[in-house]
Design brief:
Elements (H helix, E strand, L loop, with lengths): L13 H27 L4 H23 L5 H19 L6 H21 L4
Helix pairs in contact: 1-2, 1-4, 2-3, 3-4
């Protein structure tokens, strides 16, 4: 049973929904990784903490903007991809930490999907 959608405000495309899901997953994992970093302490973690905070906030905002069909979604997706790339890079500086490797993987996936959405008409 297929029918055309009368307006852009009805259903999200599968690609957009997948991107929202990737953003929310990335947001959650960044939050977990921040908690893990805080327990470790140390000055070296400050750069990683900043990247995690930026990524966590950006992914949450990006998902929100896509869900409400903001006209700025494409720009936000591009910025989100950049924040995710930076966070993945920061997490990779701790290759022996499983949480950080999980976070880097979620960030890379989210960055890829956001880059794709940034180039798509929303």
């Amino acid at each position: 049973m297929t029918h055309t959608q009368p307006s852009a405000m009805t259903a999200m495309s599968k690609e957009m929904q997948d991107c929202v899901d990737a953003c929310m997953t990335c947001h959650s994992i960044c939050e977990e990784a921040m908690s893990s970093c805080m327990q470790m302490g140390g000055q070296a973690q400050m750069q990683i903490m900043r990247a995690l905070m930026d990524c966590s906030e950006t992914t949450r905002m990006c998902a929100d903007m896509m869900m409400r069909r903001s006209p700025m979604s494409s720009d936000m997706c591009a910025m989100c991809a950049k924040a995710c790339d930076m966070c993945a890079e920061a997490c990779m500086s701790m290759p022996d930490d499983k949480m950080m490797m999980r976070c880097a993987e979620a960030c890379r996936r989210c960055a890829e999907m956001c880059r794709s959405m940034a180039g798509a008409a929303m």
